[in-house]
Specification:
Structural class: alpha/beta
Mean pLDDT: 90
CATH class of one domain: Alpha Beta
Organism: Genlisea aurea
Radius of gyration: 20 Å
Number of helices: 12
InterPro entries: Exostosin (IPR004263), Exostosin_GT47 (IPR040911)
Protein name: Adenylosuccinate synthetase
Strand order of the largest sheet: 5-4-6-7-9
Largest sheet: 5 strands, parallel
Shape: globular
Family: Belongs to the glycosyltransferase 47 family.
Helix content: 25-40%
Number of strands: 9
Low-confidence stretches: 303-316
Pfam families: Exostosin_GT47
């Protein structure tokens, strides 16, 4: 397990033949050097004789796991998902992102933060004034790109059709925020695998847009039909529990009930979830890869982002 910003980039060469479990899968096809602005996680200075000549992520053998999310941070979204609140008319925000947008918004000053992606999103679509008092060049009323953490973050995610999944200093957990609130993830980070992306068919529940197409992002999303949007949201309903660390949350709920007689709303919600969670999914993927040589052949023959090796139905 390599939980650093950029995953297993710094993995010693002696362990590289193993399966790397990470939160961010950089294949180094586009972003070849460390992109983190957090110096302690920067791997560029590790000598070649220690690190070896490997990428940060090998999609044939390695696995990107979802990041942990506290029940306090996702309980609102989980409740809406359990009650099948997913239709377009119930989501009045077309696109949503709330996070650090760089120096133009008095945010992180480093150019390499977020590989410059959040900065470009803010420049194009920012819906709150930057420090010069300007909105994004393509500001639109139903597009919310906010630089300061909203007090209504969960509610706004659950009221949105599409949600941005952009890097921070590496992985940022925005994929999990989107999915656990029933919002279709819009991934912009070229050559980077997100959770389960080399296992599930991401196109069935998400959207991937190239970094060069950032100025066209909203135009691309508006061209997706309502039928396709509802299909993606229905598929989110089928997989969201695989992005959730349910069992440890339920154990904590049981501890609180035993020690303090405390039963919070999220404890009731999570105890009612029965589908396979992150850990169960991980075991299934490892078992499948161990016993199915065709997986490797199928993945290695893939030439397109729209194909990810194991068909979704083999695991889901």
């Amino acid at each position: 397990m390599f939980a650093w910003d950029e995953g297993a980039c710094m993995a010693p060469k002696e362990v590289w033949n193993g399966v790397m479990l990470v939160h961010w899968g950089n294949t180094n096809k586009k972003h070849r050097n460390s992109t983190t602005a957090y110096d302690d996680d920067n791997w560029d200075s590790i000598p070649q004789d220690l690190r070896g000549n490997h990428s940060c992520f090998d999609p044939v053998k390695d696995i990107v796991l979802p990041a942990w999310k506290s029940p306090y941070d996702i309980s609102f979204g989980i409740n809406k998902l359990r009650n099948h609140s997913r239709y377009i008319e119930e989501r009045f925000i077309f696109f949503y992102f709330n996070g650090n947008l760089g120096p133009a918004y008095n945010g992180r000053p480093e150019e390499r933060y977020s590989m410059g992606i959040r900065q470009k999103i803010g420049e194009e679509f920012g819906s709150t004034p930057n420090k010069e008092g300007k909105l994004g060049k393509q500001w639109q009323e139903d597009v919310m790109v906010l630089s300061k953490r909203s007090d209504n973050y969960q509610e706004e995610l659950s009221s949105s059709i599409f949600c941005g999944v952009f890097p921070g200093d590496g992985w940022s957990g925005r994929m999990e925020d989107s999915i656990l609130h029933g919002c279709i993830p819009v991934i912009i980070q070229d050559g980077i695998y997100l959770p389960y992306e080399n296992v599930f068919d991401l196109e069935s529940f998400g959207v991937r847009i190239s970094e060069d197409d950032i100025p066209n992002m909203i135009r691309i999303l508006r061209n997706i039909s309502e039928t396709e949007i509802e299909r993606k949201q229905m598929n989110l309903m089928g997989i969201f529990q695989r992005f959730l660390y349910r069992d440890p949350i339920v154990l904590e709920a049981e501890r609180q009930k035993h020690d303090f007689g405390l039963v919070e709303d999220w404890a009731v919600q999570f105890s009612q979830l029965k589908e396979d969670d992150v850990f169960a999914t991980l075991v299934q993927i490892l078992h499948y890869k161990l016993h199915n040589d065709e997986w490797r052949k199928e993945f290695e023959s893939s030439k397109s982002w729209k194909h990810y090796g194991v068909p979704a139905q083999c695991v889901v």
